[in-house]
Design brief:
- The complex is a heterodimer.
- By secondary structure, chain A is α/β, with parallel strands linked by helices.
- Chain A is 36% helix and 26% strand.
- Chain A is built from nine helices and ten strands.
- In chain A, helix 3 packs parallel to helix 5 and helix 4 packs across helix 5.
- By secondary structure, chain B is mainly α.
- Chain B has one domain.
- Chain B contains eight helices and no strands.
- Chain B is elongated and about 65 Å long.
- Adenosine-5'-triphosphate binds next to helix 1 of chain A.
- Chain B: This is ABC transporter permease.
- Chain B: Keywords: Membrane, Transmembrane, Transmembrane helix.
Chain lengths: 244, 234
């Protein structure tokens, strides 16, 4: 396998109660890049991300992370993965700092980076506040802090900017770009906010009906559709695979 | 494993259960004196069941077992059912820890707590009762080494039965990830053993037999539960 590739999914299938939700999905994510994972509601983004971190077992197919089979390195591989799957959840009676400390203990790591991570998501003043007093957006920010506090190599972010204010959205975009550049992280991010994805992703994967319909670099998108990702996405949805 | 148990204690507060155990202990002490009073005041026929220390202890044990089975079930809902429901499970399963290890840490914690608090309750109420009985006896009986040995044996049996019932209840409640189902299961399941324990006034071996059955049922429930957790999809 190409050592440039961090995540590779081959021929993934997932059925729920006999209904094939993910059908023969292939995915390839290069190290040190941001992979924008797009698709309509119910297309299968969350399901694929859950399979990538072992929350769901694929009905068939193969997932490799860092060149090794996910099943073989599970659950120790989770030490290297940070994630937000849908809205993050916390131990509400604990403070933000305690929640992150607990997370680090479970990751079998010393309690460091907590302050720094809170700072990065703009929550440094709320560290001692119980999470039960947090707003939706603050929880989302804390979820991002938790996903990076253990310095993972792979970040799986399922709609991480939901509920953030405009400043927050921009801060998080800048944060994700910095993490890739300075900490050499690889990020898979699903979002419906195409303008954001356009500004950070290196590669776009579009999933429809449980299948990756298209995997293209952002420069290919721009070459094909100078008006931007949104138009590209709509054209692709309308025209199908012929839209190269 | 020790670390995982410590982490559980950071996530879920144990203090309410310490209070609950203390309240149970007070109620049980009240029962002991109620039974003693019946023995003191009742006519020969009324008081037959309450005529000896051992018989009074057996009756109290049935109540202790009932109370601690429910306490164990309530703790299992807090430590197991809630943590494996919905999004909590996503959080729990994103840690690089074997799923079975996390579950065992929870079970060890609840088992240890239930056992210790049940034994402490029995010890505390027996000490108080034994002391007052040696000063102002209500029951026409004497304390012997054999009595103490039997009470200790039965207390250990009650601990095993309570944990067993707790495990079977959480196994039932886990299918639907339901707090109510778990607690209702514990209430229903403990009624039969409570009646059976009372037989101990005539057949002291009843509790031991029941403890063996509960231990087997508890281990089977735990085994199936850990497989369910391992296969869980969220
Ligand atoms: N546990 C489940 N049982 C049955 N069907 C499921 C389950 N989880 C997901 N699905 C189905 O799988 C399909 C894909 O769902 P998924 O959550 O992956 O979509 P998504 O792309 O994340 O959508 P959204 O943009 O709305 O978040 C949907 O049709 C959904 O109904
Ligand atoms: Mg989704």
């Amino acid at each position: 396998m190409n050592s440039n590739i961090l995540v590779q999914a081959k021929d993934l299938v997932k059925t729920f109660h006999g209904r094939e939700v993910i059908s023969h999905c292939d995915m390839c994510v290069k190290k040190g890049t941001i992979y924008g994972f797009l698709g309509e509601n119910g297309a299968g983004k969350t399901t694929v991300l859950k399979m990538l971190m072992g929350l769901l077992t694929p009905t068939s197919g193969k997932i490799e992370i860092g060149g090794g089979d996910l099943r073989e390195s599970y659950p120790s591989i989770l030490k290297k993965i940070g994630s937000i799957i849908e809205t993050p959840i916390f131990y509400e009676h604990l403070t933000a700092t305690e929640n992150l400390a607990l997370h680090l203990s479970y990751m079998q790591l010393p309690k460091r980076n907590i302050e720094e991570s809170l700072q990065l998501v703009g929550l440094h003043q709320a560290g001692q506040q119980p999470v039960s007093e947090f707003s939706l957006g603050m929880k989302q920010r804390l979820g991002i802090a938790r996903s990076i506090v253990h310095c993972p190599t792979l970040l799986l972010l399922d709609e991480p900017i939901n509920g953030l204010d405009p400043m927050g959205i921009r801060q998080m975009r800048e944060l994700f770009l910095t993490l890739v550049k300075e900490k050499n992280m690889t990020i898979i991010i699903s979002s419906h906010i195409l303008s954001e994805i356009e500004q950070m992703a290196d590669t776009i994967g579009v999933i429809t009906n449980g299948r990756i319909k298209k995997e293209v670099t952002i420069s290919e998108v721009k070459a094909k559709t100078p008006t931007g990702l949104e138009d590209y996405f709509f054209n692709l949805m309308k025209a199908g695979e012929q839209y190269v | 494993m020790y670390n995982l148990i410590k982490l559980e204690l950071r996530k879920t507060r144990i203090r309410p259960y310490v209070w609950a155990s203390a309240i149970i202990a007070l109620c049980m002490l009240g029962m002991l004196y109620t039974f003693s009073a019946v023995s003191y005041m009742g006519s020969e026929a009324d008081a037959a069941e309450f005529s000896s220390y051992y018989n009074i202890m057996v009756l109290t044990n049935a109540l202790i077992m009932f109370a601690f089975s429910i306490l164990a079930a309530v703790m299992f809902t807090a430590f197991v059912i809630k943590d494996y429901s919905g999004k909590n499970a996503i959080m729990l399963f994103s840690y690089p820890v074997k799923r079975k290890s996390t579950l065992f840490a929870k079970v060890i914690l609840v088992t240890t707590f239930t056992t210790i608090s049940l034994l402490a309750t029995t010890f505390a109420i027996c000490s108080v009762w034994g002391l007052t009985e040696s000063i102002f006896p209500l029951v026409d009986d004497s304390i012997s080494i054999l009595l103490v040995a039997n009470v200790i044996r039965d207390a250990l049996c009650m601990a095993v039965i309570s944990v067993g019932i707790g495990l079977v209840s959480v196994w039932i409640g886990f299918r639907k990830k339901s707090v109510q189902t778990t607690i209702i299961a514990a209430v229903i399941i403990s009624i039969a053993p409570a009646n059976f324990i009372v037989l101990g006034t005539s057949y002291p071996i009843a509790s031991v037999g029941l403890a063996v059955i509960s231990a087997v049922a508890g281990v089977l429930a735990l085994f199936d539960l850990s497989n369910a957790v391992n296969k869980m999809e969220i």
